Amino acid sequence: MNKKELVAAVAAKTEMTQVSVEKALKAIIEATVAEVAKKGKVQLIGFGTFEARERAARTGKNPQNGKPIKIAAATVPAFKAGKAFKEAVNAKPAKKKAAKKGKK
């Protein structure tokens, strides 16, 4: 699902216009990016948490020649899925019971 499809799906569920949903989604994304850029957290209960994480400096390997290279420390955005989100993704579909054939 891309952004356009997401906007259409939310608009259909909320009976809002696609323009309104797109503005709201843009504002949510901008606010989330701004907060995580300040090293803060955005926690949406049942969905997950967006946060900044520190990644330590390390030594990597150049894939072209195999020589070691230094990779600098970095701050990276991260997402941790919430419990309800994980459960929804891991839910197993209900098994369909086979219809019993009656005697003729």
UniProtKB/TrEMBL annotation:
Keyword S-adenosyl-L-methionine carried by entry: no
Any one GO BP annotation for this protein: chromosome condensation
Gene Ontology CC: one annotated term: cytosol
CDD domains: HU (cd13831)
SUPFAM superfamilies (UniProt xref): IHF-like DNA-binding proteins
DNA-binding in keyword set: yes
A UniProt-annotated Pfam family: Bac_DNA_binding
Stored PROSITE patterns: HISTONE_LIKE (PS00045)
GO molecular function: DNA binding; structural constituent of chromatin
InterPro entries: Hist_DNA-bd, Histone-like_DNA-bd_CS, IHF-like_DNA-bd_dom_sf
Keywords, comma-separated and alphabetical: DNA condensation, DNA-binding
Family: Belongs to the bacterial histone-like protein family.
This protein's name: DNA-binding protein HU-beta
Organism of derivation: Succiniclasticum ruminis
Classification of source organism: Bacteria, Bacillati, Bacillota, Negativicutes, Acidaminococcales
